[in-house]
Specification:
The chain has ten helices and no strands. It is mainly α. It has one domain. The radius of gyration is 19 Å and the shape is globular. The two termini are about 35 Å apart.
C-alpha cells in the first residue's frame, strides 16, 4: 500500500516535469496535432471516400502515433536522460521502490496520452469539422485501444531506455525507430499500399495494430475491405497489444537498473 501511495503521488510530479520541458511537449504532445494539421491541409482536395475528409482519414493514425510517442519515445528518452544526469543514481540511494517509480512514469504517460488524444479530437472536430462517432460501441473500442496501447508503450519505453549509452544519444537512438514505424504502420501512408514485406514487418510491432483499431472507430465500415483479411480484426488487435504488454512488462523488469553496470 505504501508503494502504491508513493507511486500515485509521483504521477503529479512526473506530469508537471513533463509539461515544463518544452522540447518534450512539442515532439511528443503537440507533434501529432501538427502533423494532422499539415496532412489535413495538404491533402484537403483529395477524395478519400464518401463523407471522409483528409483530416478524418488521418485522425486514426495520428491518435495511434500519439500513443507511441507518449510511451516509447517520451519515456525512453526521459529515463535515459535521468540515468545520464544522475537522477536515477540519487533515487537509488532513497527508500523509493522501483515499483513506485514505474507507477509514476506509467501514470504520467496515461495522463498526457489521454490529454493528447482529447486535444486531437477537439482539433479534428472544431478546426476541420470531422464527424465523430455516435455509436457507444465505437467509443468503447476507442477506450480500450487507447488504454491498452498507452500501458503497452509505456512499458516498452521503460525497456528501450536501457539501449542508449548516454542521455545525449537517446534521441538519436530512439526517435528514428519511432519515425520509421510510423511510416510503415499506416500512420502517414495507406497500409494496404505498402509492399507485402513491409506490411509483414509492421505487423510485428504494436503501432500497426493500434492504428487499425483506431481506424475501426473513426472510419466507415466500408474501409475495412482495405485491411489485411478484409476486416477490422479487433480480436487480433487486442491479442497483439496484450502480447506486447506482457513482453514490455517482462523486459522492463529484466533490464531496468538504477545504475548501468558499465
Amino acid at each position: 500500500m505504501h508503494t502504491l501511495t508513493v507511486g500515485t503521488g509521483r504521477i503529479a510530479f512526473e506530469t508537471r516535469g513533463y509539461f515544463r520541458r518544452g522540447d518534450q511537449v512539442f515532439f511528443t504532445f503537440l507533434f501529432p496535432v501538427l502533423m494532422l494539421t499539415i496532412f489535413a491541409t495538404a491533402f484537403s482536395s483529395m477524395d478519400f471516400g464518401p463523407g471522409v475528409t483528409a483530416a478524418g482519414y488521418y485522425l486514426p493514425g495520428m491518435l495511434a502515433a500519439g500513443i507511441l510517442l507518449s510511451g516509447v519515445q517520451n519515456l525512453g528518452i526521459d529515463i535515459a536522460n535521468e540515468r545520464h544526469d544522475g537522477t536515477l543514481k540519487r533515487l537509488a540511494g532513497t527508500p523509493l521502490a522501483p515499483a513506485s517509480y514505474f507507477i509514476g512514469k506509467l501514470g504520467q504517460v496515461f495522463v498526457t496520452g489521454v490529454a493528447q488524444a482529447a486535444l486531437l479530437l477537439v482539433v479534428a472536430r472544431v478546426v476541420f469539422d470531422v464527424g465523430l462517432p455516435t455509436d457507444p460501441a465505437r467509443w468503447g473500442t476507442f477506450a480500450w485501444v487507447l488504454g491498452l496501447g498507452l500501458v503497452t508503450c509505456a512499458l516498452l519505453g521503460i525497456a528501450v531506455a536501457q539501449l542508449p549509452r548516454s542521455g545525449k544519444s537517446a534521441g538519436a537512438v530512439i526517435t528514428p525507430v519511432v519515425l520509421v514505424l510510423q511510416f510503415i504502420s499506416g500512420v502517414y501512408l495507406p497500409y494496404s499500399q505498402l509492399p507485402g514485406w513491409l506490411q509483414q514487418t509492421a505487423a510485428v510491432f504494436p503501432l500497426k495494430w493500434m492504428a487499425q483499431g483506431m481506424r475501426q472507430v473513426f472510419l466507415p465500415d466500408s474501409f475495412a475491405a482495405a485491411e489485411v483479411g478484409g476486416s477490422w480484426a479487433l480480436a487480433s488487435v487486442a491479442l497483439a497489444l496484450a502480447l506486447w504488454l506482457l513482453l514490455g512488462f517482462v523486459a522492463a523488469l529484466a533490464v531496468f537498473r538504477w545504475i548501468r553496470k558499465d
